[in-house]
Amino acid sequence: MERQDMSAPELTAAIVEDATSGRVLMLAWMDDEALRRTRESGEAWFWSRSREEHWHKGATSGNTMAIVEIRDDCDGDAILLRVNPAGPACHTGAESCFAPWLWRVVAERAANRPEGSYVVSLLDKGVAAAAQKVGEEGVEVALAAVADTDERLVEELADLWFHSYVLLAARGLDPQRVEEELVRRHGAMQ
């Protein structure tokens, strides 16, 4: 347990995990009151170090976390919350705060729709436009692979990966689904 200062509550790290997939969703802080509220309500409550107040996860976004299980670690200095999330865990709109940085950017733009954003402009055109960009970039990757420099190939692959994330956002999918499919295939290949 860590003590921030004399006025701050004693805080414990709370690791939040999706009870179904096992994916780590976020890390937050809890004090005794947040833990009490979590146990009583059946939904996750935390202590905000920046705002210095308790917060009910999802109170404003609707992305609450139903508690499945609460575990203390062996030293009693961390808590594992296994939850059923009702939406993304991250404020950026990503399923997990531990998503790849590029996905966090795309998800944040999709959620907040900032004016002038290239991501938003593609999303506004719909799934077909995003899919078309992935197709175009795939062709450019193939051409660069056989007829261009390594640097050009890397640039084209970066475009393909970026537009693939935009396509996932357009379809309302998280890249974790792709990762899970790759893991499934790897297991099948063994």
How would the blueprint of this fold be written?
Elements: E1 2-3, E2 10-18, E3 24-30, H1 32-41, E4 45-48, E5 53-56, E6 65-72, E7 78-85, H2 101-112, H3 118-125, H4 127-147, H5 150-171, H6 176-189
Helix pairs in contact: 2-5, 4-5
* Element string (H = helix, E = strand): EEEHEEEEHHHHH
| Distinct helical segment count | 6
CATH classification, class level of the largest domain: Mainly Alpha
Give the class from helix and strand content and strand pairing. Answer: alpha+beta
**Helix percent band:** 40-55%
Radius of gyration: 20 Å
Task: Work out the oligomeric state of the chains in this entry.
Answer: single chain
Total beta-strand segments: 7
Overall geometric form = elongated
Could you write a compact summary of the structure shown?
The protein is an alpha+beta fold and 190 residues long.
What attributes does this structure have?
single chain, 190 residues, alpha+beta, Ubiquitin-like (UB roll), 5-stranded mixed beta sheet, two-stranded antiparallel ribbon, 7 strands
Model description:
The chain has 190 residues and is of the alpha+beta class. The chain contains 6 helices and 7 strands; from the N terminus they run βββαββββααααα. It has helices at 32-41, 101-112, 118-125, 127-147, 150-171, 176-189, and strands at residues 2-3, 10-18, 24-30, 45-48, 53-56, 65-72, 78-85. Strands 1, 2, 3, 6 and 7 form a 5-stranded mixed beta sheet that branches.
